[in-house]
Amino acid sequence: MMRTMTFTLVSCLTMVVVAGAHVECYGEGEYMVCSDVDTDSDGDIHAKSWDTQGNSYQLDTETRPYRNGQLFESTDSEGNSYSIKSWTDSNGFHTEDSEGNVCTITPTGQMIGCGQ
C-alpha cells in the first residue's frame, strides 16, 4: 500500500515540478487529491486542484483598484463568480458585493445595511 501511495505522490509532484510550482497531495492508496496555489506578482491568487479520477477545479482571484479602494473578483472553472467592492469617501467606508449586499459605516460609526 505504501508503495502505491508513494508512486502516486511522485507522479503528482512530477507534473508540477515540470511547471515550476509547489503542489501538495493528499490521499492513500489509489485515490489522491493534489492542489497548487500560486500568488502572482500582482497579488492575484490562482488555485487549482485535481484528483486521480480525472476531476479538476480552478479558482482565480484578482484584486485591482476601485474608486478610493479595491475590487476583488473571483471566478472558478465551473462558471461561478463573486466580487466585492470596497472604498472610502467622506460618507464613510462602503462595501458592495455581486449578490447585492451593501454596507456603509459612517464616520460616526453608524452602520447602514450591513445585514441588518
Description of the molecule:
The chain has one helix spanning 2-19; strands at residues 23-28, 31-39, 45-51, 56-66, 69-76, 81-89, 92-97, 102-105, 111-113. It has 116 residues and is α+β, with helices and mostly antiparallel strands. The chain folds into two domains: 1-39 and 47-53, no CATH class; 55-116. It has a nine-stranded antiparallel β-sheet, covered by helices on one side. Strand 8 and strand 9 (111-113) form a beta hairpin. The longest helix has 18 residues, at 2-19. It is elongated and about 60 Å long.
Describe what is shown at a glance.
This protein is an alpha+beta fold. Helices cover 16% and strands 54% of the residues.
**Number of helical regions:** 1
Distance between the termini: 54 Å
Count of extended strands: 9
Q: Helix content range of the residues, please?
A: 10-25%
Largest sheet: 9 strands, antiparallel
Number of domains: 2
Order of helices and strands: HEEEEEEEEE
**Global shape:** elongated
